[in-house]
Structures are given as structure tokens and as C-alpha cells.
């Protein structure tokens, strides 16, 4: 073996390694076939040097608390983004503005607090959205998914949600699966509309046994079909009660009007009589 053989083969090995791992794979991540996988690396921040042609980015089980919209937008071909089990916080509005091709987005097991129209409105191709297991997620705006018309699989299980407006999901033409279980649903008369939609839609609700009312106390732990019957009954009888009040009011008004009319008629009669008798007296005086 020549003395220069060893370093030469070493550098060749190094070159080969570089080629196989990609030229700029982020540290602590593995890269192959347009996929970057950084699972479970205790990353605090979004990794730098992600290859720009990446299609699939997996950041699962890290400590990332912020997704930079600009850096994300460099990955214009991204179709699959898995950020489950991180520390992503409340303000995700306009974060996904540059990744319009995204089809799969997993944000479960994070710390989201709300979803507005601006959160996902640029993801026109989104098919799967997982935002389950975000215990501080308390509000989803009515039109939050208005632009996600391809949405097929939506999971909002195990969050802090108490209410979901029917219009939020009713108009999604491709929805097939909707996770709603283990939320603290507030079953008031506004919720009846949602439950009625659930009964009539052909969407699949996984873990349906755990879709239950939490408040009011009288309906606690009641599952959705049973809750529908209860709500239907109590909300409709309340309507009847309102009707009774209304009818009583109308009756009272009619009664009052009648009394007033009789009273006015009485006064008129008295005045007329007094006037007539005065006239007679005057006539008598003239005689
Ligand atoms: C990503 O890497 C983790 C472990 O490093 C592995 O368990 C997981 O299957 C990988 N994911 C994909 C989609 O390759
Ligand atoms: C990441 O978060 C976990 C749980 O919140 C914590 O136990 C761990 O110390 C964090 N790691 C780093 C490197 O911050
Ligand atoms: C989650 O968000 C809430 C409200 O924004 C904040 O108070 C809390 O510290 C966050 N939790 C974690 C683990 O980051
Ligand atoms: C919502 O979708 C419409 C039509 O597809 C599009 O014109 C509009 O720009 C989208 N809104 C946002 C905020 O991306
Ligand atoms: C039902 O509860 C939701 C959420 O708490 C609330 O926004 C809504 O106004 C309530 N509707 C009625 C009729 O009380
Ligand atoms: C359903 O709820 C019960 C009681 O809260 C819980 O023990 C069970 O693990 C839940 N099932 C699933 C699949 O989450």
C-alpha cells in the first residue's frame, strides 16, 4: 500500500458519505429521498439548512416552540409536515403562508390556544389536519377551515374546546373523518344544531363512545345520540314555554284593550247623556 493511499480512500469515503446524506442535511436529522427526519432530538428551534426540495419534514417529539414563516416558505414543495409533540404556542396565524402544497399537517400534542381563519387559510390542498391533544385549545373560529375544501380527516379530540359551530365543518364537502372525543362539550341549545348535524351526516366519528357532554351537570357524560334526544326535548319545551308567555301577553293586551274600550265607551255615554240632558234643560229654560 502506498503511503498516500489511506488519506485518499478516507477522503473518498467522506465524499461518498456527503453524497448519500445530501449536501446540507441539518445536524441531528437524517435525510433521504426528499425526506428530512429530526424525530426526538430535543431541538429547541426550527432546524436550519433544510434542503430546499424537501417534500416531507418530520420534527416530531422535540421542543420547538415557534415555526418561522419565512424559513418555512423556502420549502415551497413541502407536502408533509409532522410537528406532533412539540411546544408550539398560540400564534400560528400566517405561519403556513408559503407552504401552499401542504397536504398533511400534524400539530397534535402541542400548546395551540386558538384557530382563526388566518391559521390555515393558505393551505388550499390540505387533506389531513391533526390538532388533537392541545389542552389549551379553546376556540376555533367559525370560518377557520373555510378555505380547506379538500379536508378529509380532521382531528380535534382531547382539546379544551367546549363548543364548535356547525358551519365550521358542515360545508366541508370532502370530510370523511372527524375526531371530537374527550372534549368538554357544553351541551346547550346552540349545540343542538351541531348534534343534529352529527346524526344526519355520513362523516365517521372515531371513538364515538367518548364524545360526551360535560356541562350542564344534568347532561354530564351523556353520549351524543342520547344527548340529542334530551336537548331536543328541553330546547323545544323551552320554546313552548316562551310561546305560552307570548300567548299570555297577547291575551292580557286584548283584555286591556277591551277594558279600555269599554271604559272609553262608558265615558262617552256619560258625556253624551250629560250633554243631552243639559240641552233639554236649556230647551226647557227657553220655553
Ligand atoms: C423518523 O425517525 C424515527 C427515529 O429516528 C423513526 O422512528 C421514524 O419511523 C422515522 N419516520 C419516518 C417517516 O421515516
Ligand atoms: C424538552 O421538553 C421536555 C418536556 O417539556 C423537558 O423535560 C426537557 O428538559 C426539554 N429539553 C430541553 C433540551 O429543553
Ligand atoms: C401554553 O400556553 C399557555 C398560554 O399561552 C402558557 O401559559 C403556557 O405556559 C404554555 N405551556 C407550555 C408548556 O409552553
Ligand atoms: C381562500 O381561497 C380563495 C379561493 O380559493 C383564495 O382566493 C383566497 O386567497 C384564499 N384566502 C387566503 C387567505 O388564502
Ligand atoms: C352555548 O354555549 C356556547 C359556548 O359556551 C355559547 O357561545 C353560546 O352562546 C351558548 N348558547 C346559548 C343559547 O346559550
Ligand atoms: C374514553 O374515556 C374513558 C373515560 O374517561 C377513558 O378511560 C378511555 O381511555 C377513553 N378512551 C379513549 C380511546 O380515549
From TrEMBL:
Superkingdom field: Eukaryota
UniProt keywords, alphabetically: Cell membrane, Disulfide bond, Ion channel, Ion transport, Leucine-rich repeat, Membrane, Repeat, Signal, Transmembrane, Transmembrane helix, Transport
Localization per record: Cell membrane
Keyword Disulfide bond: yes
InterPro entries listed in its UniProt record: Cys-rich_flank_reg_C, KCNMA1_auxiliary, Leu-rich_rpt, LRR_dom_sf, LRRNT
Gene Ontology CC terms: voltage-gated potassium channel complex
A Pfam family matched in the record: LRRNT
Transmembrane segments: 244-272
Residues in LRRCT domain copies: 183-236
Signal peptide positions (record): 1-22
Membrane topology: Single-pass membrane protein
Entry's Gene Ontology molecular function annotations: potassium channel activator activity; transmembrane transporter binding; voltage-gated potassium channel activity
Annotated ranges, domain LRRNT: 24-56
Subunit architecture: Interacts with KCNMA1.
Protein name, as recorded: LRC52 protein
Species: Erythrocercus mccallii
Name of the encoding gene: Lrrc52
